[in-house]
Design goal:
The structure holds two protein chains of two kinds. Chain A has helices spanning about 10-20, 35-40, 50-60, 60-65, 70, 80, 90-100, 110-125, 130-140, 150-155, 170-190. By secondary structure, chain A is mainly α. Chain A is globular. The two termini of chain A are about 35 Å apart. Chain B is α/β, with parallel strands linked by helices. In chain B, strands 5-4-6-7 form a four-stranded parallel β-sheet, sandwiched between helices. The chains are: A mainly alpha, B alpha/beta.
């Protein structure tokens, strides 16, 4: 793959923004490839972790923000732990996700559905009732039977509890609402 | 040592076996570790992508609850552990975030307590010798692959648990039971827990590799310390066997269950009957249970 090294200021600004967002210096990377070698999710990625870092150095914004890689990273942190240069690759993936979302690029519905199911469970109960998360996720994804066929078996084994536990729900909801407000306000100030 | 136990939502709703075996050990060792009253969800990983502040605020509520009891926190779920630690870092060190947290919650939370995983309390505070002296039923002739997963060891600066490539905490605990901790390369390889619900086939791929590597290295069973690793390796094992047309039949214990067995505790109390891959044929064949 032949890539032209750029002096485009927009692209350099992207590198800077990403470094700020992820709190790590991507310029330190010297392309040893250790992150890619150890990545258990590499087989699901269209560009490898070390390529993401290289493209970040070069400011190739569109290429990275539209990649499948940032959504298929499983955040196991093997890459950052092993990086001889101390680059927080997981942090970069996380930062890229947030930047992509801000630009209106959304993850696949499945990922979003799961996050939503979790969040609603927390708001509803104050504690997460995991069987409820699975049900909620299934309803959102339109695949009602996913994993649910195992529920009777799980119940017979007494592996799952029958009912959710409620705890401090009003307070939890209030805290989440407030955190969202503050985060939004900070974002607006930035923009 | 004054701790309060934070079980977290997984242990309360889908991993009662981990919870029960933990409580059995607390009782057997006569430890004064009551539950944190009024604990709430740590936020899991669902809040993090868009709302970092919320993901720090929820664990802070639990930290505050333990502070009210004037106790440190003992935790079993590595994900809860990580979120509590992150929140504590923010409460203690990051002054800007600390201000935001104060505004979010409406109160200031000190966050200056200790947060420890139960396995650390057992090895560091109770001590291996004390534990060893209580072993009445050595788990002889049992080869265990200790599987730690990612979250408890990474990132090391945050978790400060053990070496991220070759941790030893659980190996030491398993060794005092009389079982043998085998050497194998996938101790901290990811099980793909984050994809377990949304992209199940990815998780099956990853757990297949872990089961297969444990078997190849001669393990009779696996020991874990994470409820999500356990669900994936134990509950999903029949699915994995069907998908890859390979039989494993590898029981997956929580380390607390292995310790309890060696202490001679009732298998029912340790919730061994709730494991999906039944451990009883193995335990009987080794003469550990009759």
């Amino acid at each position: 793959m032949l890539i032209e090294i750029t002096k485009d200021l927009d692209q350099l600004a992207f590198t800077e923004e990403l470094e700020k967002e992820s709190g790590t210096d991507v310029k330190k990377c010297y392309q040893c490839g250790k992150c890619t070698a150890g990545c258990p999710a590499n087989y699901l990625m269209d560009i490898s972790p070390s390529q993401v870092i290289r493209f970040s150095q070069m400011g190739l914004k569109e290429k990275i923000l539209h990649s499948q890689t940032i959504w298929n990273c499983i955040f196991c942190d093997t890459c950052s732990t092993r990086c001889p240069q101390g680059v927080d690759i997981k942090g970069v993936m996380d930062g890229l996700r947030r930047m992509a979302v801000r630009q209106g690029i959304r993850p696949k519905a499945q990922v979003r559905n799961l996050e939503k199911a979790f969040q609603d469970n927390i708001k509803g109960f104050g504690r997460v009732y995991e069987p409820g998360v699975v049900l909620d996720f299934n309803i959102r994804s339109g695949n009602l039977l996913h994993d649910v066929i195992f529920f009777p078996w799980l119940l017979i084994k007494r592996k799952i509890s029958l009912l959710p536990h409620f705890k401090r729900t009003a307070e939890v909801r209030k805290v989440l609402r407030k955190a969202t407000q503050i985060t939004k306000k900070a974002q607006e100030v930035k923009e | 040592m004054k701790y309060a136990y934070y079980p977290g939502c997984s242990l309360e709703s889908t991993s009662p076996d981990f919870n029960l075996s933990t409580e059995a050990l607390i009782e057997f060792l006569s430890l004064d570790i009551p539950e944190v009253q009024d604990w709430v969800c740590c936020g899991a990983s669902s809040l993090h992508p868009e709302n970092k502040l919320a993901s720090l605020a929820l664990p802070a509520l639990t930290i505050e609850a333990a502070e009210k009891q004037q106790r440190d926190i003992m935790v079993q779920c590595p994900a809860c552990y990580a979120h509590l630690r992150e929140s504590q870092e923010a409460l203690v060190h990051e002054s800007k975030v600390k201000e935001d947290l104060k505004e979010t919650i409406g109160r200031e939370i000190a966050g200056k307590l200790k947060i420890k995983h139960f396995s650390e309390i057992l090895t560091q505070e109770i001590g291996l010798e004390t534990l060893q002296s209580k072993v009445t039923k050595p788990l002889k002739d049992l080869k265990i692959a200790n599987y730690y997963g990612c979250v408890i060891v990474r990132p090391q600066e945050l978790m400060q648990y053990d070496d991220p490539e070759d941790p030893q905490v659980m190996d030491k605990l398993v060794n005092i039971t009389g079982a043998e901790s085998i050497s194998w390369p996938f101790k901290t390889k990811c099980c793909g827990a984050g994809s377990s619900i949304s992209k199940t086939e990815v998780t099956l791929d990853m757990t297949y590799q872990i089961l297969s590597m444990a078997k190849k290295n001669g393990a009779d069973a696996i020991s874990v310390l994470c409820p999500l690793c356990h669900i994936n390796l134990d509950f999903r094992q029949p699915q994995i066997e069907r998908r890859y047309k390979e039989k494993f039949n590898l029981p997956v214990f929580y380390y607390t269950q292995l310790l309890g067995l060696a202490f001679g505790l009732d298998p029912k109390k340790l919730a061994l009957d709730r494991l999906f891959v039944s451990p009883f044929p193995l335990l009987k064949s080794k003469g550990i249970l009759s």
